[in-house]
Design brief:
Blueprint: E1 13-17, E2 20-21, E3 31-35, E4 51-52, E5 73-77, H1 83-99, E6 104-106, E7 114-117, E8 122-125, E9 134-138, H2 145-156, E10 171-173, E11 222-224, H3 241-250, E12 259-263, E13 274-275, E14 287-289, E15 317-321, E16 330-334, E17 347-355, E18 362-369, E19 379-386, E20 395-401, E21 407-414, E22 423-432, E23 439-443, H4 446-452, E24 457-460, E25 464-465, E26 471-478, E27 482-490, E28 505-511, E29 524-529, H5 546-549, E30 551-556, E31 559-574, H6 575-578, E32 584-585, E33 588-597
Parallel strand pairs: 2-24, 3-31, 4-8, 5-6, 5-7, 7-9
Antiparallel strand pairs: 1-3, 8-9, 10-11, 12-22, 13-16, 14-15, 15-22, 16-21, 17-20, 17-22, 18-19, 18-21, 23-33, 24-26, 25-26, 26-27, 27-31, 28-29, 28-33, 30-31, 32-33
Length: 633
C-alpha cells in the first residue's frame, strides 16, 4: 500500500499581485490570484509501494488468461471520492479510449468490476483479481491524470517498468541509497513469470518510478545507463506510446476505442481523402505540397521542437490555392467514410491550418452524413468556418461534430472577393470520438516572450461562455523561467439567470504536446473543482457573481466587463519542461482549457453526453445543396 512521503497541499492560498497586460489584452485592473500551490504540481513521491497482491502470486506482469479484463471494464465511483478525483478518473478513461482498445462503462450487474475508492493513498491490485468489486484507491492527493492512469494500468495487468527481468541492461539500482528494509521494491521479475511483449525498455513509461524513489537521502536509487534519461524517468504527464503499445499486445488488439482518423501526409499521400470536384465552382483542387511561396515554407509535422531537431527532412501538407479564379470558386476534399461507435454521438476534429490568402477567403468544415447504405449523396452540414487575416504560423483549430450516422469530414476552401497570393494549407488532422476542449489559446514565439516580458505579464483569451452560460477567460502568466495558467470568472450576458456562486465546475488546464498523432501525445494537464470552501479574505465565495463582487477588468462593445479572482497554477510549467516533448513547436505553445459541470458525479458514475452548439454563421452566397456532390476518387 502507498505511503505518502510528500503530502500534496489541498489548501488554496490567496496572493495579490499586479497583472501587467500584454499587447494581446486590454487594460486590466489589479487582480486577486488564487494559486493552487507549487506542491500541487509535484507527483514524484505519490506512487511508492502502490501495488497489492493476492497471497502466493509471483511478482510479474500478468501473462493473460483469467487475469485480463473484458472491455468495456465495469466500474463504480465510490462516494468516498471527492468530486475532482471523480472527474479526473473520467478524463483518464478518455485517454485509454483514444490510445488503446480498452473502454470503461458504469457497472450494471457484473461480478467483476473496479471499485474506485479513497482508501488512503494510490494503489491497486494487479490484473483482474476479485469479484464483487475490486478496490482501487485514488485519494485526494492522487487526483492527477497520470497517477490515475498508472493505477489503472496496474489493475489492467502492469507492474513497474524498472522491475522487468531485463532491467539491468538499462538501469542500475543503487541499493546503498535505498531506505532500509525497502529493497524488495526493486526485486526483478523472473522471465518465466513475465513478458516484455518484445517491446524495448521504456524510460518514458508512466509505470517507471522516479530516480529518487525510496531514497535514504544519500543520492538517487535508480541510475539510467543512458545519462540523458536520468531526469526523464518517473514522468507523470501521461501514459507513453509504448505503454499503449504494450496494453494492446497484452489484450491482443490493434484498434482504439475513440480514435477515428489521423493524417500527417508524411508519405506525400492524402490518406484516403478524395477530391470532390463536382462540388466545386471551378476546376481548383487540393494538392499535396512541401511548401507554398506565400507561406508556409514547411509542414507542421516536421517543425523543430524541444532540442530544435525534427524527424524528417521533407514534410508534406495539403494546400488549396485562392490566387486565381473568380469569387466563389472552391476546392473540396473529403475524408473516407467513417462510422460512429460510441454511445455519445460527439466527435472532435483537430487540425493545423496556415492562411496565406486574402482575408475574405474562407475555409469551411462540413460533415456529410449518409442515411443508409443506399444513400450515395448524403447531406452536408456546416460545422466550422475560418476566415480573416492571414497567419504567420501554423494554427491549431478544433471543430466539434455531432454525426450520428456514417459520415465523412469535408474541407472546402472558397475564394473571396479580394486579390490573393496564396490560399489555405492543412496538416496533422486528428478525429476522435471525444469532446473538444472548450478553449484553445495559442501563443507564438513563447520562449522569446518569456525572456523579454516583465515578470507578471499576462496574456488573455477572449471572453468565453460555458455550456451553462457562465462567462470566463483563461490567463497565461509569464514569469521568465516559468509560466502560470489560470481561469478568471467574468460578468456575462446570462448572469441574472445563473446560479451563484459558480460551484462544482471542474477546471482542467492543459498544455498540448504537439506530437502530430494524438495517440502518441503526452500532454500536461491539471484539474481542480470550484468549491464552497474557496473563500476570499472577506468571507465571500471566490466563485460569487463578479458583477456584484468583482471589479471592472475591461470593456467590450462599450460594456464594462467585471472580473472575479484569477484561479489556477502559478507554477504550471517551467522553461526546462517547455523544451521537452513537443510543447513548443515552431516557436508556438498551445494551451487548452475545459470548464465542465461535474454535479452529476456527486451521486453518479458518469456525465451526460455533451451537446454540440449550433453554428452561428451568416447566410451563404449560394445554395450549397446544388448538384450531386459525389466523390470523384
Amino acid at each position: 500500500m502507498l505511503r505518502l512521503t510528500k503530502k500534496m497541499q489541498d489548501s488554496i492560498f490567496l496572493v495579490v499581485c499586479l497583472v501587467v497586460s500584454s499587447t494581446l489584452a486590454e487594460s486590466t485592473q489589479k487582480s486577486d490570484i488564487n494559486d493552487i500551490g507549487m506542491d500541487r504540481n509535484t507527483t514524484n513521491d505519490l506512487l511508492v509501494d502502490d501495488t497489492l497482491q493476492k497471497p502466493n502470486t509471483g511478482r510479474s506482469t500478468i501473462l493473460g488468461g483469467n487475469a485480463l479484463w473484458k472491455s468495456p471494464v465495469p466500474y463504480v465511483l465510490d462516494k468516498s471520492l471527492d468530486l475532482n478525483t471523480k472527474g479526473v478518473i473520467l478524463r483518464a478513461f478518455d485517454q485509454f479510449r483514444v490510445k488503446s482498445c480498452i473502454d470503461f462503462k458504469p457497472r450494471d450487474t457484473e461480478e467483476y468490476y473496479l471499485s474506485f475508492k479513497n482508501l488512503a493513498g494510490c494503489w491497486s491490485y494487479i490484473g483482474r483479481t476479485f469479484i464483487n468489486g475490486q478496490e482501487l484507491s485514488i485519494d485526494a492527493g492522487c487526483d492527477h491524470i497520470a497517477i490515475v492512469e498508472h493505477t489503472i494500468l496496474h489493475a489492467l495487468g502492469f507492474y513497474h517498468e524498472e522491475i522487468r527481468h531485463d532491467r539491468d541492461d538499462y538501469v542500475q539500482i543503487n541499493f546503498d541509497n535505498v531506505i532500509a528494509e525497502q529493497e524488495g521494491y526493486f526485486k526483478k521479475l523472473g522471465s518465466d513469470l513475465s513478458t516484455t511483449h518484445n517491446v524495448s525498455y521504456d524510460y518514458l513509461s508512466v509505470m517507471h518510478s522516479g530516480k529518487n524513489v525510496l531514497s535514504n537521502g544519500n543520492g538517487s536509487t535508480i541510475i539510467t545507463k543512458d545519462p540523458k534519461f536520468q531526469n526523464v524517468i518517473g514522468q507523470r504527464l501521461d501514459m507513453s506510446p509504448q505503454d499503449a503499445q504494450k496494453l494492446k499486445l497484452l489484450y491482443k488488439c490493434n484498434s482504439t476505442v475513440a480514435s477515428m482518423f489521423f493524417c500527417d501526409f508524411s508519405n506525400g499521400m492524402m490518406c484516403q481523402m478524395s477530391q470532390m470536384s463536382s462540388c466545386a465552382q471551378s476546376g481548383s483542387e487540393w494538392e499535396v505540397v512541401t511548401e507554398v511561396s506565400s507561406g508556409p515554407s514547411t509542414d507542421h509535422t516536421t517543425l523543430p521542437a524541444g532540442t530544435g531537431e525534427n524527424g524528417q527532412k521533407t514534410g508534406y501538407f495539403i494546400y488549396a490555392s485562392t490566387s486565381s479564379g473568380q469569387e466563389g470558386d472552391s476546392a473540396w476534399l473529403g475524408t473516407k467514410i467513417m462510422s460512429t461507435q460510441r454511445e455519445c454521438k460527439v466527435q472532435c476534429l483537430q487540425f493545423y491550418y496556415f492562411h496565406s490568402g486574402n482575408e475574405s477567403d474562407e475555409l469551411n468544415i462540413w460533415i456529410r452524413e449518409f442515411q443508409d447504405e443506399h444513400d450515395t449523396r448524403g447531406t452536408l452540414r456546416l460545422m466550422g468556418h475560418i476566415t480573416g487575416l492571414p497567419t504567420s504560423h501554423w494554427k491549431l483549430h478544433h471543430v466539434s461534430l455531432n454525426a450520428t450516422k456514417n459520415f465523412q469530414v469535408v474541407f472546402e476552401v472558397q475564394k473571396g472577393a479580394g486579390n490573393s497570393a496564396g490560399g489555405f494549407s492543412i496538416d496533422d488532422i486528428n478525429l476522435s470520438e471525444t469532446e473538444c476542449p472548450h478553449v484553445t489559446l495559442q501563443i507564438d514565439n513563447l520562449e522569446r516572450l518569456l525572456s523579454i516580458s516583465n515578470i507578471g505579464t499576462a496574456i488573455y483569451s477572449p471572453r468565453q461562455y460555458s455550456k451553462e452560460g457562465y462567462a470566463y477567460r483563461i490567463v497565461i502568466g509569464l514569469y521568465q523561467t516559468f509560466l502560470g495558467m489560470y481561469v478568471e470568472i467574468l460578468s456575462g450576458d446570462n448572469d441574472d439567470q445563473l446560479k451563484w456562486p459558480c460551484l462544482q465546475k471542474q477546471a482542467t488546464f492543459q498544455m498540448l504536446d504537439q506530437t502530430p498523432n494524438m495517440k502518441m501525445q503526452m500532454s500536461k494537464q491539471w484539474s481542480e473543482v470550484t468549491q464552497e470552501t474557496h473563500k476570499l479574505s472577506n468571507g465571500i465565495s471566490a466563485w460569487a457573481n463578479p458583477r456584484k463582487n468583482g471589479s471592472i477588468v475591461f470593456h467590450e462593445n462599450d460594456e464594462a466587463v467585471y472580473g472575479g479572482i484569477i484561479f489556477g497554477y502559478k507554477y504550471f510549467a517551467f522553461l526546462e519542461e517547455l523544451q521537452t516533448r513537443e510543447f513548443v513547436k515552431g516557436g508556438s505553445a498551445i494551451f487548452m482549457f475545459s470548464f465542465e459541470d461535474v454535479t452529476p458525479l456527486v451521486n453518479g458514475n458518469s456525465l451526460p453526453c455533451p451537446q454540440v452548439r449550433p453554428m452561428n454563421i451568416t447566410a451563404r452566397s449560394r445554395n450549397w445543396d446544388e448538384g450531386p456532390c459525389f466523390l470523384t476518387g
